Amino acid sequence: MFDSSFDTGTQLKTDDHASGDNDAASATDGTVSDRQPQTAAAKWEAFRETAQRKIKLYMSASRLTLGQGRWVAAASLMGALSLGLLTAGIVAATGSYSVETASLTAEKAPQVVASTGTETLDPIADIAATDMTDTDDRGELAANDDGAETTNASLMPARDADETGTPAISADNETTIAELQPAAPQKIETTVALKSGETLMELLMNEGAGRVDAYHAVAALRSYYNPRKLRAGQEIKLAFLDGIETADDATENDAEETASSRLLTAISLDPDIERTVRVMRDGDGSYTGNEIKKTFTESYVRAKGTISSSLFLDADRAGVPPRIIVEMIRMFSYSVDFQREIRVGDKFDVYFDRKFDENGVPVMEGNIAYASLTVGGKEHQLWRFKTKDGVWDYFDGKGRSMKKFLMRTPIDGARISSGFGLRRHPVLGYSKMHKGTDFAAPRGTPIYAAGNGVIEIAGWVRGFGKYVRIKHANSYQTAYAHMNGFAKGIKRGVRVHQGQVIGYVGTTGRSTGPHLHYEVHIRGKAVNPLGLKLPTGTQLAGAELKRYQAKRSQVVTQMAAAPVLTTVAQASSASDDTKAN
């Protein structure tokens, strides 16, 4: 009777009536002793002896049963089958695998634990958590094939350890892990100026924005400001995220291409001094625009001084902004000839409002509330006032409008080259009555309508070249000759207003150089334009005059308490007077 056991990979026979050889297999304490596994040579020898005995027995039995002839054929067949079985047995016997070997291998195999999906895959933590002990759970040592005892640690890569015994991570490992981490996107802010002929979309794409992003950003801006109004030099602030993978469609037929590009996140520009328009990228990738209106504090300032060279230069030294100076010149141009009447020692005084930002920096000038100009000892004063019909103008101390019926000089920056009266004609060569005043000026200088009226003639007139004549109220007419060309829309029957551009200086007709020939006619008779006493445009009266006088008194009181920017250095004019004496 046989009892098989595979705990050690060796088959053992036990029998109550076994021979003494089997009894010797029992240990003194009644248990079966451990046996070493058979070698491949011993297995082969046992198999060969068993096979020889079985073949001899088979041959003897077959001769007796089949007879000599049949036995030979059967022996041949069975021999072939036996040879096949022998080959299979040899392969099985010579294999290195055994039950005991498989058992030992399974004990040393690494245990694989499945991740739950909620754990963080941290390569540094995994390395630190690896079991680096030199023994297995039972403290047993592993054996090499040559019988030498080694530890599990010998199979692991050599690693440094700190004083506490904790394995250290090498610098190479740290560098590799850091390189695997993606770089964080960087925020980039820049300010660029629009180039001549460049569109806003082109500017955005030139700075690195994707075409689709640029298109949607401009569309969002258009709700608050028309990009077509942008001019060369306009500064635009842009914000990007650099290092973001963005997809951009070049055209509908092109495949989507993904490339490393700047991600446009914001646009900001100031269309004017009082507002800021912004476009921001939302979380869903769309763009939204908004408008921020700036708030300013407003206060009045005063500047005054003495003219030593020109009104413009001296007022500029006094801290008066250029726009306010130009407005002053326009205010007094109906009563003062700035080209010929201003002298050293004349004085100016101006009171105007300014707007300041949150830091107290002046950002914009408002309107002139009061201005005075003393020319040749005569003081001209004007106050700003809005009438009951909502129209504002400048009025003198008696409530008369600054605007005269006609302008004394319908051109800026010109010199008188020929006055009114009898003179020798420069072309004809004989004396002839000159019925107007000639103002020499560069070709193309604008010519203004001297007053409100209707155009009677706009065309070529013999001797005068390109010519315009305007009919005004009270039987007044003005004429403008030798023009280079007419302004847009100027033709017979068109109504024009005072100060409107009607043409440009030229030298057409009988002329020796570019200039304006200007005439004034009263009931068809030519008069001297410079000696003409012209009535004012508007005269306040009644309740309107009282309201104006109250406003004027209020401005005078405020001026007395207002800070003065500066005063033109009196030393300059004093030194000039000293030199003159």
End-to-end Cα distance, whole Å, is 156 Å
Largest sheet: 10 strands, antiparallel
Structural category is: alpha+beta
Shape: elongated
Question: Which percent band covers the strand fraction?
Answer: 25-35%
Instruction: Give helix % range.
Output: 25-40%
The CATH architecture category of the domain at 298-403 and 538-581 equals: Roll
What oligomeric arrangement do these chains adopt? single chain
- CATH class of the domain at 298-403 and 538-581 reads Alpha Beta
Question: Which fold name is given in CATH as the topology of the domain at 298-403 and 538-581?
Answer: Nuclear Transport Factor 2, Chain: A
| Mean pLDDT value | 74
Radius of gyration: 56 Å
Number of strands: 25
Q: Figure out the total of helices.
A: 12
Low-confidence runs: 1-36, 97-164, 246-260, 567-581
In short:
The chain is an alpha+beta fold and 581 residues long.
Structure keywords:
single chain; 581 residues; alpha+beta; Nuclear Transport Factor 2, Chain: A; Glucose Permease (Domain IIA); six-stranded mixed beta sheet; 12 helices; disordered N terminus; disordered C terminus
